[in-house]
């Protein structure tokens, strides 16, 4: 049995593809190019800490759709337990990122993640993190709009 796509749905999909320019769909960045992007305000989907450098690699966590942000977290930073409404994935690209799950930020409950490490931030699942003397850079991807809601007690 062959399934037919309704004409309206196919037309809508074509409109979306036509509205997206190749610059919106195709992006290649070296690590230097990614770190050279402008720093944006600590907005939706971020910890809200102004000491963390956030860069938009693709999309925008404040808007509907796929996004990827880069966060460069300075040495000695602690991010209290919080949640996001969207399901997210992340990859550590530099430094050492101490990441844990739970509604209370407890240093001993984290796992040290080195460059190349991958982790998830399931929607609504509390998590927390901290950096040691080397700091860390992490790429986070989700489908917005995102948010950040703090829970529990800070470190």
TrEMBL record:
Keywords: Signal. InterPro entries: RmlC-like_jellyroll, RmlC_Cupin_sf. Residues 1-23 form the signal peptide. The keyword Signal applies. It comes from Sphingomonas populi. The keyword Ubl conjugation does not apply. This is Cupin domain-containing protein.
């Amino acid at each position: 049995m062959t399934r037919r796509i309704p004409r309206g749905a196919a037309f809508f999909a074509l409109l979306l593809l036509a509205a997206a320019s190749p610059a919106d769909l195709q992006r290649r960045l070296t690590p230097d190019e990614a770190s050279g992007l402008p720093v944006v305000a600590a907005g939706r989907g971020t910890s809200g800490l102004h000491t963390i450098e956030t860069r938009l690699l693709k999309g925008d966590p404040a808007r509907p759709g796929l996004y990827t942000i880069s966060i460069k977290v300075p040495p000695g930073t602690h991010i209290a337990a919080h949640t996001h409404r969207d399901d997210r994935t992340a990859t550590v690209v530099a430094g050492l990122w101490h990441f844990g799950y739970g509604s209370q930020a407890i240093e001993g409950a984290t796992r040290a993640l080195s460059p190349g490490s991958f982790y998830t931030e399931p929607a609504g699942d509390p998590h927390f993190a901290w950096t040691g003397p080397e700091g860390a850079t992490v790429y986070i991807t989700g489908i917005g709009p995102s948010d950040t809601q703090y829970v529990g007690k800070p470190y």
